[in-house]
Amino acid sequence: MEWILAKLGIEAVQYTLFGIGGIIIAWILKKIPNNIIKAKFGAFMYGAGVAFTLGFSKWKWTKKFWNKLIEPWFIDAIDNIIVTGFSKFIEGMRSDEPD
Questions:
Q1: How many CA atoms does the CB half-sphere of 49 hold within 13 Å?
Q2: Stretch 30-47: mean pLDDT
Q3: How far is CA 20 from CA 3, 14, 24, 26, 37, in A?
């Protein structure tokens, strides 16, 4: 094993192992139905959003800035730019699929 590391370098071996690990993770995730992944990840992200906004709206040093200045702009920016952008991007990638 040492001669492989010496010959190729540790970075090449690490990239190979990470690539193989990524392929294994993708294979495992493909075995799980998409609606289950979306439901579990959606529930997790909902909880993270609740914790995030409750934290910032209750702390004394962020309360006045978050509630009046940042929250309406921040949430609209995420919704309008990121959510819509990714949604339309995925829709465009699937545009060649038959109905």
A1: 11
A2: 92
A3: 20, 10, 6, 10, 22
